[in-house]
Amino acid sequence: MRNRSKKAHAANRPDVNGEVGEEEAFKKALNFIRYRPRTTGEVRERLRRWGCRACVTDSVIDRLKACALLDDVKFSRVFMEELLNKGYGYYRVRGKLLEKRLDRGLVEKMMDEYPHDNEVERARTVACRRVSRLIDEDDVARRRKLKNYLTRRGYEGEVAEEACRNALVVDTELKRE
I want to staple 11 with a disulfide (CB 3.0 to 4.6 A). Which of 23, 24, 47, 119 is the partner? Predict the structure, then answer.
């Protein structure tokens, strides 16, 4: 049997009330963030579900931040870039960032950096990929379905409308050739 102090042993198992000790919580949190990057809010929520007291949760999060294993700013930048590459619009990106339990102030700061200047072009690219699936539809239905699709992906109505016009013109020109 290994020689361990009582204090170290007690920190690794739940206490009498079934609450998780700090070392066990830290190990669980490390395992939780091993699979993919997580936000402070996600880790905090998971630790709460595991039965950790608030002081243990705060301590574990502080340790993870000190080890540079939790960085919400870096996470939000990388995640926002991934969402943009998937073709999501402003509202969907904002919603997804909030779903990750990021601080609202940080989300608003990130949305200030959102690339509005090429929003229509990104929406048009998404629309051009999608329009080929609507080949059997009449023009009115194609426009309606395409606009609804872009709106669900987080684009404003005007942006979606303009992207639809562009995509349908390109699609029509391709059919003629």
Answer: 23
Residue 59 contacts residue 22 (beta carbons within 8 Å)? yes
Contact between 76 and 106 (Cβ < 8 Å): yes
DSSP code of residue 137: S
Burial letters for 109-147: b for 16+ Cβ neighbours within 10 Å, e otherwise?
Answer: ebbeeeeeeebbebbbebbbebbeebeeeeeeebbebbb
Give the C-alpha separation, 12 to 137, whole Å.
Answer: 62
Helix/strand/coil for 144: helix
Between CA 168 and CA 67 the distance in angstroms is 51
- Distances, alpha carbon 175 to alpha carbons 45, 133, 135, 144, in Å: 52, 14, 10, 20
pLDDT in tens, 2-58: 444 444 444 444 444 566 789 999 999 999 999 899 999 999 999 999 999 999 999
